[in-house]
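*** Protein under study ***
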Amino acid sequence: MLVPGTDGDARPWLREARWIKYANEENFVLVACYFRGDGAKAYDHAAGGSGQALLNQLDVVRKKQGWPDLPVLVLGHSAGAQFAFQLARWNPQRVKAYVGIKAGGYAMMRGKSCPR
């Protein structure tokens, strides 16, 4: 799963030869996110609704395609890295691993430790 920074759109990344080659070599499906919102409506806090919205859509596509229910690998940039981190903390059984690029500082959720 590719998650860009604030108001970024990762959908064009799906046409890049490097991502296509990597997905084919590793035998996985690429998912590109387009989240909007900053400040009070920020999407990077996955437990605030954006995480569930994304997982719901993944489940719809997975069931339609007949794919197994497997955890995701998440690559996030900037606010997308914050989202990746928060998604893994909020729902660790759905995230196999995540990478954060230019992530900045993390806003920790109270009462939860990092699952990894």
User: Anything to note?
Assistant: The chain has one domain: 2-101. Residues 2-101 form one domain. The radius of gyration is 14 Å.
